[in-house]
Design goal:
Helices cover 53% and strands 11% of the residues. It is mainly alpha-helical and 104 residues long. The chain has a three-stranded parallel beta sheet with strand order 1-2-3, sandwiched between helices.
């Protein structure tokens, strides 16, 4: 239920629990069980190895498609993160998140 109503996932560096939540959300987006939303990995130095492993191991082995990697955004930029979330919200119903952001 937590993922079902999410407008975005911003994942900060963490351990096994963080990875569990990341891959659960990513799987639900990938399989279209939930509405597509941004999955943002914040901290390029921390997450770069994971992205490389996905691209260099999972994709060639046929475990995920190359386009599935594009479901993830890797960044260190807070403004980019906010823009991705707001833009995704603008493509849905333009609900409370957009109104709060525009008010600032």
């Amino acid at each position: 239920m937590f993922v079902k109503y999410a407008q975005a996932f911003v994942i900060l560096p963490g351990g096994f629990g963080t990875l569990d939540e990341l891959f659960e959300a990513l799987t639900l987006v990938q399989t279209r069980k939930v509405t597509k939303f941004p999955v943002i990995l914040f901290g390029t130095a921390y997450w770069a190895g994971l992205i490389s492993w996905i691209r260099d191991t999972l994709v060639p082995a046929g475990k995920v498609n190359a386009e599935d990697v594009e479901l993830l955004t890797l960044t260190d930029d807070v403004d980019e993160t906010v823009k991705l979330i707001v833009d995704a919200d603008a493509n849905t119903d333009g609900g409370p998140l957009r109104a709060e952001y525009d008010a600032e």
